[in-house]
Amino acid sequence: MKIIKYEEIVKHVSKMCQEANFDLGQDVVNAFQSALKKEKSETGKDILEQLIANADIATSERVPMCQDTGVSVFIIELGQDCHITGGKLYDAINEGVKKGYEEGYLRHSIVDHPITREKSKGYNTPSIIHVELVEGDELVIHMSAKGGGSENMSTLKMLKPSDGVEGVKNFILDTVRVAGPNACPPLVVGVGVGGNFERSAYLAKKSLFRPIGHRNERTEISELEMELMEKINQLGIGPQGMGGSTTALDVKIEIEPCHIAALPVAVNLNCHASRHKEIRL
Amino acid sequence: MAAIQLSCPISDEEIKTLKAGDRVLLSGTIYTARDAAHKRMSEALQNSGKLPVQIAGQIIYYVGPTPAKPGQVIGSAGPTTSGRMDKYTPALLELGLKGMIGKGYRSDEVVESIKKNKAVYFGAIGGSGALIARTIKSSEIIAYQDLGPEAIYKLEVKEFPAIVIIDSKGNDWYEIGKQQYQS
Ligand code: SF4
User: Fold this and answer.
1) Tell me: the pLDDT tens digits for B8-26?
2) What's the DSSP call for residue A280?
3) Is B21 close to A57, i.e. CB distance below 8 A?
4) CB A24 near ligand 1, within 6 Å
5) CA 20 to 30 Å from B131, out of A7, A80, A240, B58?
6) Per residue in B67-116, pLDDT tens?
């Protein structure tokens, strides 16, 4: 059995929050570079160049690449033989976020009450934390700083099984079309199909944690990802919605078994500021 | 096509020459305001008919920056989604507001009001807050100090990059741009 201390989690989470906001992953930067080679619109190219320059400034000056430093979303894989001492896992994560955001001059973007809009007292907390219990004694923390602009354009629909794969494709394409410039394209499109109402949304979110270019292991799903990527890039929306051939950097789909009468589909859009970090303890 | 250099505030004559899709570099004075400041301004107009800032002829930038690090003028400062300000915008355009900088769609009412009042809507690049911050040379709080990062600030900018999305004739670059690359 492995023992992990509360303070250790706080320290790592705090660091991850800052790194996520300062260092855009190499997978995203590479995707910008290869999009730049293919982009047909002059404005689109100009925007991609500025995004590359922006990522460089953020890394070298240790400043956030975007002023919306997001909601911190965690997927935690907790080994069942791992024991956490000194406090609760959830508290350790929130404390780490608070520390990381405050010390890193990141923005506090959480309201405590969705109706009265009263600002939360804990700097950029509470976070959204999903825990998956797994085999082994490791603690794996996946963190994402998720922007509001793209989250606001995300959708969920309970399709009919008879809508079939065409229905699924159309729903995804409609979501991207309606989002247009608001979700800050080029996008990473995360899709969850199956499960039930809430599982489909979780799967869509989870798919966004996969690095750009990593395909679903199932052949038919990986083919669907690639087909949708092509169709989305034919919509013409382009970088920042200002026209062009780079609307999505990637499409990710996750599936799960579901009820005989159901076909849930959730589409979680992520902007180009696709900020993810991972740590294994 | 090279970017057009513009000094802010922008003259009415120059606004009329701007076309949807033009790339511009803005230098001079602009004001910041997002959700909370817009709500306050709208309440002030209803109560007293007066605003704490003379917005006639001016440009408002929809932004909520990150806190500045010691020694920085401003933290990361890219645009936020403009649509949330749509409800308040026509009243400000009626008072002579000439330009807005943000990202994303505007409502039909806002587009109509831009046309009627011969104004312009610029799109800045969402998610390029570190790059944009470099073009902001000074920042001074002007009103609603208690709103913190959401207060109204006066910014001096130099070559702030933007694109004309809706011009004074109501042409919309999001529509035009998209149609060119649809296949
Ligand atoms: S949608 Fe993403 S890139 Fe755009 S402003 Fe929000 S966090 Fe930044």
Assistant:
1) 999 999 999 999 999 999 9
2) E
3) no
4) no
5) B58
6) 999 999 999 999 999 999 999 999 999 999 999 999 999 999 999 999 99
